[in-house]
Design brief:
single chain; six-stranded mixed beta sheet; 2 helices
Length: about 350
């Protein structure tokens, strides 16, 4: 405090680089003088001046050994020591408490303070935190062994410290991305270990047939579980040959991923054994089949004698869609002219070397 008068007090602003002056508003019953220390908050900044308002009821002494404080453990430091969070640290930079698990809510007595670091001993445990055997709600990622505790009702510390994110190490990769119920198996590691005991719905099994959207060129697809905010990943045996909705057979699963193969397309309707009309191309041994304005490429196993319109029978769906010709090809006009033996674009055939 450097100056007082008219119900306002000016303070030293030299520690702040973005303002030249500051005015603090204090209560009518507050007695202050130059040199007084006041606990206040910045309420406005305008024209390089800060307006501060006195915060009442905040004048408390510094923490001392023997004080009992309520704290929440937010990080496992060793098998028996956790770092804690307080509502007001004041003269403390770091607080450690012993004998409790991470995520615990305890009242502890400060046993020792040195250079802003304090060690505390628990007196009352309000919430044991992530102890072995505790059931927790997780947010999982398919194929990953790391998961985050997402439900505030599971752990009171999450409600008190909204920015705190507790992670656990799963004993095996999660099968889905989404919610899951797990049980803590080992509590004194960083992070604690847990086993998923329940997913939001029954998981598919090997041999199940599912329909999902696929993207051309992708080697996997994601399938959302019915009536659940969760999805799982299927690694496909081949890159997807076309965009659309496909039917997939699940083969097996390992390391948090399912394996599967495309057996047919629902949209566009492409199935092994079906015959479609399309345009075939002689130089490339390919055909294009049109479905409602969408063109699908088919690799033809036979040699195509001419370019034109023909029937193609689907023989395989894997890294590409394969087929074979059925019946004759109706050549295009250009192809018919080429086969007639006369090249209408080569005028030299009509010139005998003499001008009239």
């Amino acid at each position: 405090m450097t100056h007082t008068g008219a119900g306002k007090a000016r303070i030293d602003t030299s520690p702040w680089s973005n303002i030249e002056s500051a005015i603090i508003k204090v209560g009518s019953n507050t007695s202050i003088a130059p040199g007084t220390k006041i606990y206040d908050t910045v309420t406005d900044i305008s024209e390089e001046a800060a307006i501060l308002t006195q915060k009442r009821g905040a004048y408390k002494r510094q923490h001392l050994p023997g004080d009992s404080l309520r704290m929440q453990t937010v990080e496992q430091v060793s098998s028996s020591v956790c770092q804690a969070a307080l509502d007001q640290f004041r003269n403390l930079n770091t607080v450690y408490t012993v004998g409790v698990s991470v995520g615990a809510d305890v009242t502890a007595t400060l046993a020792k303070i040195r250079d802003g670091t304090a060690f505390a001993l628990p007196v009352t445990i309000h919430d044991q935190g992530l102890v072995a055997g505790r059931s927790i709600q997780l947010s999982t990622t398919g194929g990953s062994t790391r998961a985050t505790i997402a439900d505030e009702s599971t752990l009171s510390v999450l409600d008190q410290h909204g920015g705190t994110k507790f992670q656990v190490e799963l004993t095996e990769p999660a099968w889905t991305t989404g919610p899951a119920t797990a049980e803590i198996t080992v509590a004194d590691t960083d992070p604690p270990k847990a086993t998923v005991v329940e997913y939001p719905t029954e998981l598919p099994r090997s041999g199940d047939r599912l329909t999902t959207n696929v993207t051309k060129g992708e080697d996997h697809t994601k399938i959302r579980l019915n009536r659940a905010d969760a999805e799982f990943t299927v690694a496909l045996s081949h890159n997807t040959p076309a965009n659309g909705k496909a039917t997939i057979d699940l083969l097996d699963r390992a390391d948090g991923f399912y394996k599967g193969k495309i057996v047919e397309y629902v949209a566009p309707p492409i199935q092994v054994g079906q015959t479609h009309e399309g345009r075939v191309y002689a130089p490339r041994n390919k055909a294009k089949i049109e479905f409602s304005g969408r063109h699908v490429t088919v690799i033809i196993s036979d040699d195509i004698p001419t370019t034109g319109e023909g029937s193609v029978k689907i023989t395989e769906i894997s890294d590409n869609i394969y087929g074979q010709l059925v019946g004759d090809i109706d050549p295009t006009t250009d192809d018919k002219e080429r086969k007639s033996g006369v090249d209408m674009t080569d005028v030299s055939k009509f010139w005998d070397g003499n001008f009239l």
